[in-house]
Design brief:
Layout (H helix, E strand, L loop, with lengths): L2 H16 L6 E7 L5 E6 L4 E6 L8 H12 L7 E5 L4 E5 L6 H7 L3 H18 L1 H4 L7 H19 L6 H20 L2 E4 L8 E2 L7 E2 L6 E4 L2 H7 L8 H17 L8 H28 L10 H12 L6 H11 L2 H10 L10
Antiparallel strand pairs: 1-2, 2-3, 3-5, 4-5, 6-9, 7-8
Length: 350
């Protein structure tokens, strides 16, 4: 029997015999960029979500820890009804089928949706000092490993660029600057993927928050830029700055880490955004070449535009902006077109 079928049989047995849900009906709900899968379960009284995390691939204990921390802060995360840690199974509250991205792309609700998302994020940051202390630090090692994904997977593997010694030195210097800037920011509870695909539209206690298991104690601007410079949807700069200003005002009112000025807070926001988007360029390509998941490649141009735009705002990043414009930007459409036309395959070496 294939492993997938074995896991489904395991889930059926767990629900029926151990949790005693009568005649549960199971359908695939979603998968994510990891080895986790999610199934929607219909029981007579309610619906639930089963997280299937094969223990040899994924450990559910970080999820359970962060879930409890966020729930204690009042965030609307899926309540955990049952857990089998050894077998990698969780029975969760069903937060529905409507991610923020779906509503935002439809139009007309962005101000209300972002108001709720920003309020929830501010609450986590203002109340989350004790929770942050229980998380691993978003330290130099993590930041450096993330930045290194871009030269390997985006520049080398996807664009097939051979960097000169000067370009390698420039990237190294830029990455060191971004690391130092990130480490200089005040520390808060960081979800790490607080964006429109991981926020669910709820009729009560909006938004529902998912995919938080990799949370760290890190830079105050990180989740804010994940939300407002979302890799899956973009907004005009003036609108983004308005949201950033409103968020900073909320932090100021609550005694949170809002910086000495709006300019400093925007700098924090922009520079940690460059770090995040450089990382994401690498991750999206790795998801294709290593894991066979091509669905993120169309979002590469938007993500690269964020890096280019922010780099144009700060003199320290001018060399990075020139490198993108002279060596990178024109190569991305070609590389994506090759994938779309079947000119490359997952796992193939360049």
């Amino acid at each position: 029997m294939p492993n997938t079928d074995a896991r489904l049989a395991l889930i059926h047995g767990w629900l029926s015999h151990e949790l005693r849900l009568p005649r549960p009906r199971i359908e695939v709900a979603s998968s994510d960029a990891s080895f986790r899968r999610y199934f929607r379960v219909w029981a007579p009284a309610s619906t639930y979500i089963v997280m299937d995390a094969p223990p040899e691939k994924e450990d559910v204990r970080p999820y359970l820890k962060v879930s409890q921390l966020l729930e204690d802060l009042g965030a609307h995360v899926p309540h955990v009804h049952a857990a089998d840690v050894e077998r990698g199974l969780l029975l969760l509250e069903d937060l529905g089928t409507t991610p923020y991205l779906q509503r935002l792309e439809r139009g007309g609700e962005s101000e209300l949706l972002y108001a709720d998302a920003l309020a929830a994020l501010a609450n986590i940051q203002l109340r989350g000092a004790a929770a942050c202390a229980q998380l691993p630090p978003y330290g130099r090692g993590e930041l450096a490993r993330e930045l290194a994904l871009m030269p390997e997977w985006f520049l080398g593997r996807h664009l097939k660029l051979a960097l000169t010694a000067a370009e390698t030195e420039m990237l190294g210097g830029t990455f060191e600057l971004l690391i130092q800037e990130a480490l200089a920011q005040p520390r808060v509870f960081v979800h790490r993927d607080y964006h429109a695909r991981n926020l669910m539209v709820m009729s009560e206690r909006n938004p529902g928050i998912i995919d938080f298991q990799d949370a760290l104690c890190g830079p105050v601007g990180y989740d804010l830029v994940s939300l407002l410079k979302d890799c899956y949807i973009a907004w005009p700069r003036a609108r983004v700055e308005s949201w950033v200003s409103a968020f900073r005002a909320r932090l100021l009112a609550g005694g949170g880490p809002a910086g000495a000025s709006q300019a400093q807070f925007l700098r924090w926001f922009d520079l940690i955004g460059v770090q995040r988007h450089i990382k994401v360029l690498g991750i999206f390509c790795r998801l294709w070449y290593r894991d066979g998941k091509a669905g993120y490649l169309p979002d590469l141009p938007r993500t690269l535009d964020y890096v280019r735009e922010a780099s144009g705002r700060y003199a320290e990043l001018a060399p990075l902006k020139r490198f993108i414009e002279e060596r990178v930007a024109a190569q991305l459409p070609r590389a994506n077109a090759e994938i779309a036309a079947g000119g490359a395959r997952a796992g193939a070496h360049p």
